[in-house]
Amino acid sequence: xxxxxxxxxxxxxxxxxxxxxxxxxxxxxxxxxxxxxxxxxxxxxxxxxxxxxxxxxxxxxxxxxxxxxxxxxxxxxxxxxxxxxxxxxxxxxxxxx
Length: 97
Known about the structure:
- Strand 5 and strand 6 form a beta hairpin.
- This protein is globular.
- The strands form two sheets. Strands 4-3-2-1-7 form a five-stranded antiparallel β-sheet, with helices on one face.
- It has one helix at residues 73-89, and strands spanning 2-9, 17-25, 29-38, 44-47, 50-56, 62-66, 93-96.
- The chain is an alpha+beta fold and 97 residues long.
- The chain starts with a strand and ends with a strand.
């Protein structure tokens, strides 16, 4: 299956989000608003679209649940690698699974 990735860099954010991505699977199913986030250590990673739950954790902090997500570690790593590559080169990329 062909997976197409389109990213867009964001300028001047205060919450660590450096860009957003849309990933289309086989030309038939798209996931939008995948955030590209910079950690406090300066590393980039992807954050899948999520919603805020009504419950909180034991520290009273809000909890979030992913709406769509990679099922395997291998696919998450490949997806993240390709999303970050797309952001870095400023062009759409695609790969096959």
